[in-house]
Fold each of these.
Amino acid sequence: MNLTLKIWRQKDAKSQGKIVDYQISGIEGDMSFLEMLDVLNEDLINKGEEPVVFDHDCREGICGACSLQINGEPHGPDRLITTCQLHMRKFNDGDTIYIEPFRAKAFPVVKDLMVDRSAFDRIQQAGGYVSVNTSGNTIDANAIPIEKENADDAFAAATCIGCGACVAACKNASAMLFTSAKVSQFALLPQGQVEATERVLAMVNQMDEEGFGNCTNTGACEIECPKGISLENIARMNREYLKASLKG
């Protein structure tokens, strides 16, 4: 397979970036998208040129690091997958592929295709946890009965890997799907009730401080999410936020 790659190259966050064209050949359909980029980088290194910087880690669809905008879509032209799970058989010989970083004010470019997604970490740190009870009266979590529907919904919310596809898909660069997933996984469980009020207020406020936009209600975030996180979580977060605001 012969391809034309149009890749965003940017030296650092302060430099002006641009699209650079690359020709690549010998790509097989069973290669992952990241393996294709590995082939390109090996060729660039052999030519004495600087390789393309992109983020990756597990390459198993778990870590969420491999966040790329491919032909205008977060993670490319497939559904319920991350970029590392996208295979080149989704493309045709002779195709031109545009590869860019996720675009959001809160995701500044580090270099080339790599962005700084530490804003998500700060939202998590603001309240996405359950404090440890060290009183000596701790209770085994498995001993607390939980309705199956709530348990299933909490688990579904907890599958969010924080890749940022929801932000990249939203025209307002909203992080409400991510934040709501992190709020929901605790809001649905008894362990999360003790700090529920402080949690949702702190996480939503941190989300706003990071510069993410508001929800557009278009649903693009759910469609592009590699884990299929439901928009119902945003509705739940809004309810939790309203209750917490009235208590305050």
Amino acid sequence: MKKPARPKRTRLRAPAKAKKRPTLNAKQRKTLEAAIGYTFKDEALLTRALTHPSLIDDYHGGAQFSNQRLEFLGDRVLGLVMAELLITKYPKEREGHLTKLFHTLVSGETCGKVGTGFGLRDYLFFDSSMRNNISGHYDKPVADAVESLIAAIYNDSGLKAAEGFIKRCWVFDTIDTPPRESENPKTQLSDWCGANQAAYAVYTTLNQDGPPHAPVFTIEASVDGHAAAIATGGNKQEAEKAAAAALLEKLDTND
């Protein structure tokens, strides 16, 4: 009787080894940390902050592999720190102008300028196709990595350390700040009233003179309990602006 044939042994293939994730060498790390003014206790946080999501597939990485989650957190930390800085620096500004300044200071363009300032692109880990790919009006991978660095510093040492990085590296004096609406004297006067907890200005037409083709309006601008000023103009709006400007001069002198 024939013995049953033994099943063929199949060789089990070892699973492919995961590629070792890229890291900075000691010299690179030292140079970068000197540039940002912060030394990491946990090197893994720095490595993740520098890892662009284009490498996830190459390294079979998960959600914690690239800097995307850190970027999400860093954006919120930056917003908190920047809002506090603006509130402190501009105690008399109204919310509208603070909001414009805030959006400029936390924008991708500004983050890109910050990272370019200390050569951050040279330290990022990219897919080869991204290495020299700078499209759009600012360097988005660098901007994203700056926010990731903020979060990495925050996770490594807390809010004060992240705030220190922002104060050291942000380009407060070189960015293009948005134009002030308060260049209009009436808006400036409203800002003054809001900052000084005063009633808003009242504009009263005292007189309208001159021929129909060239009228002259006389307007009084007043802030109850503070001061009043009178000015003239070729139309009502022009006269109100002139009266507001004259009143602001009085109010500034009284301050």
